[in-house]
Amino acid sequence: MTTASAGRRRLRAGLIGLGAMGRNHARILSCLDGVELAAVVDPAGDPHGAARGVPVLASLEELFRHGVDYAVVACPTHLHEEVGIQLAAAGVPALIEKPLAHHGEAARRLVDAFEAALLPGAVGHVERFNPALRALRDRLAGGELGEVFQVVTRRQGPFPHRIADVGVVKDLATHDIDLTTWVTGQEYGAVAARTVHKSGRPHEDMVAVVGQLTDGSIANHLVNWLSPLKERVTVVTGERGCLIADTLTADLTFHANGSVPTQWEALKTFRGVSEGDMVRYALAKREPLLAEHEAFRDTVLGRETDVVTLRQGLRTVLVAEAVLRSARAGGPVPPVLVS
After folding, report:
1. Are strands 241-246 and 251-258 parallel, antiparallel or unpaired?
2. How many Å apart are CA 45 and CA 55, to the nearest integer?
3. pLDDT grade, residue 150 (50/70/90)?
C-alpha cells in the first residue's frame, strides 16, 4: 500500500477508536496536509460527531474494503495486539497509541508482525514531539549540562475516566520511561518501585520509581492519578546546572550553577554549587500531536523521520513491566532490554 500511495496527491488514513484520544486523532487527521481521513472504525458509533462526516464502520474488514494507506490505532490498550496483527496481515502501516500493548509478549508479537511484513509502524509517545523536550534533548546533546547526574519527572493529576484496562504505570509512566531514554540516550539498568492502590480499581493509581541508567545516572519518576494538581515536569540535573521542561506549557528553563568567590578559608573547601543565572528559552510551540502525525505521514511516504519505532515501544513496555515486578517483589529488578 505504501508504494501505491506514493503517487497520489493525498494519503487515505483510517482511524480505529473514537474515545477521548481517538477524537483528538480525528481532529488532526481531518486537517492534516496531504492526508484524507477516509473512514473510522468504532462499534460504539460516533456519539460526539468526531468523525466529521466520514463513514463510521463496525469492523476492520469494512475499513479494508474502503482502502486505506495507513491507520491510526486509538482503541483500548488490550485490543492493540489484535487490531495491529490484522493491520499487518492486510499490509497497512500503523501508528499505534502508547503503550504499544498491554503486556510484553503482545508487544513482541506486534513488532514481529510489522517487521516480517516490512511495514512502517510507530508508537504514539507524543511527548517526544513536545517543543520543550525536543529543545532539552538538543541542549543535552550539545553538552550544555556536561555530565548528566539525574533525570526527575513528575506526572500527576486527577483520574481520567477514559482509562479502564491498565494502571498508571502503563498509561502514564510509559511517557516518562520513553522520554528519559530518548533525551539521555541511555537504557534502564535496573528499577525499584512502590505502587499505591487508593481508587478501588484493580490497577495501581500511584507509583514512585527509582531507576539507574546504563551510564550510572539516576532516574526518578513520580506518577499518579490521585492529585488535584496537574503537573508534567522533567528536570535534568548535570555538572553545569539543570534544565527544566514543563510539557503542559512547552516551556524550557536553564538554571546555571553559580560561582561566587569567597575569602572565607573555612568555606573554600566546600565543593557544592550555588544558584546562578536562570534563563527561560523562547521556543516555537507547535502542537505535539500534529507534529507526530506529520512525522508518521512522512514515514509512510518513505521519508526519513524520527517517529518512535515499534521496537522502542516494546522496550518501554518491558521496562514498565519491570517497574510493576519491582513493586510486587518489594525490591529492585533489572528490566528485560530489547536488542
Report:
1. antiparallel
2. 10
3. very high
Q: If you compute the radius of gyration of the chain from its CA atoms, what whole number of angstroms results?
A: 22
Q: Which three cell numbers stand for residue 187?
A: 537504557
The full set of domains in the chain, from first to last, is 2-124+290-308 (3.40.50.720), 128-286+317-329 (3.30.360.10)
> Is the distance from CB of 206 to CB of 226 less than 8 angstroms?
yes
Please, what is the Cα angle at 301 between 295 and 307, to 5 degrees? 25
DSSP string, 176-244: HHHHHHHHH---EEEEEEEEE--SSSSS-SEEEEEEEETTS-EEEEEEESEEEEEEEEEEEEETTEEEE
Question: Which tens digits make up the pLDDT trace of 94-149?
Answer: 999 999 999 999 999 999 999 999 999 999 999 999 999 999 999 999 999 999 99
Residue 208 buriedness (CB in 10 A; 0-12 / 13-18 / 19+): middle
Overall average pLDDT of the 22-44 stretch: 97
Q: Is 290 exposed, middle or buried (0-12, 13-18, 19+ CB in 10 A)?
A: middle
Q: What is the pLDDT of residues 167-225, one digit of tens each?
A: 999 999 999 999 999 999 999 999 999 999 988 888 999 999 999 999 999 999 999 99
Expressed in angstroms, the distance from the first to the final Cα of the chain is 29
Specify the amino acid at residue 173.
Answer: A
CA distance 203 to 128: 26
- Specify which residues 123 forms β-bridges with: 96, 308
pTM for the complete prediction? 0.91
φ/ψ of 232, rounded to 5, equals -140, 90
Whole-number pLDDT of residue 60 = 97
Q: Distance (Å, rounded) from C-alpha 267 to C-alpha 240?
A: 20
